[in-house]
Amino acid sequence: MQLLQSVFATMVQTVTPLPAMSQTIIEPQEDTVLAALSGFVANSDASYRPQVHAFLRDAIVRGTLPPHASLSEAAIAEALQVSRTPVREALAQLADEHLVNIYRKVGTIVAPISVSQLEEGRFARSTLECANHVQLAQTITPGQLTEFGRIVDDQRDAVARGDVDRFFDLDELMHRRLFEFAGRSHVWEMLQPMKRQFDRVRWLLLDRVADHAQRALREHELILAHMASRNFAQLGATVASHIDRVGSHLPEVQARVPGYFVE
User: What confidence score (pLDDT) does residue 13 get?
Assistant: First the structure.
């Protein structure tokens, strides 16, 4: 704990002055930063860079490292018990994905959520998922439908338990598998950097907006039903509505955490 307290002191140094109101809203608290750094266990048999990248990426997407948090390369390396090289490389990759901003001679901070990039991610997902899922419905096998149904059942259990983390993971699994069923796993991988801001807002909706997971579950159930019945028109409309729901709830999320967003 003493080590983490020291790390926290290093990480929360102010990079650039923020308006007083924004600081009140978004200034990272000690327990938030400590929680974001805890739980990392490196696999010594694999490269550290992708492990550190995935850990920090998930912390940013899920808000445990909130916008405007200062990220010290040395402090992160010490807390995660890795060298500074994989941390530096992971931060550079996160900058390419617009999840952090690196300022020369100043430091690195978690980037706020870009509304314009969010819209790009929504457009990419809506376009590709509608096309993929409608085409998949023409060829989907009974075994694939059974697996799809099991994932939705697991989501139902997660909603009943109020397990937001599990529901988010199952949501990602479902959308990924629908691309893989159609033989388009590379398309799903291509979408990942484009949908990061979209994922951050999805997480805020699940974490802060009542009944959002329940509504998402109902839409997943409809997608499964339309795919099983080969109802192509209703399937396309339901997928589009499901993806576009993030945009329709954006004003509500922005009102709850106004310091998290930039145009």
Answer: 38
| One-letter amino acid for residue 233 of the chain | A
The structure tokens 């550190």 sit at 52
Q: Round to whole Å and give the CA distance between 245 and 77.
A: 38
The domain boundary residue, chosen from 112, 131, 154: 112
The domain total for the chain is 2
3-state class (DSSP) for residue 101: strand
Instruction: Please give the C-alpha separations between residue 204 and each of 28, 75, 95, 243, 251, in angstroms, as whole numbers.
Output: 16, 27, 21, 15, 12
Q: How far is CA 61 from CA 15, 38, 39, 57, 155, in A?
A: 21, 16, 16, 6, 20
Report, as ranges of residue numbers, the positions in the chain whose pLDDT lies below 50.
Answer: 1-26, 28
Surface-to-core class of residue 53, CB atoms within 10 Å of its CB (0-12 exposed, 13-18 middle, 19+ buried) = buried
Q: Which of 112, 146, 177 is the last residue of a domain?
A: 112
End-to-end CA distance of the chain: 38
Domain presence at residue 263: no
Nearest to 28 by CA among 59, 67, 73: 67
Q: Read off the pTM.
A: 0.80
pLDDT in tens, 90-121: 999 999 999 999 998 788 899 999 999 999 98
pLDDT of residue 20: 36
Chain length of the chain: 263
Residue 14 is predicted with a pLDDT of 34
Question: Do 143 and 75 lie in a common domain?
Answer: no
* DSSP secondary structure letter of residue 194: G
161, 88: one domain: no
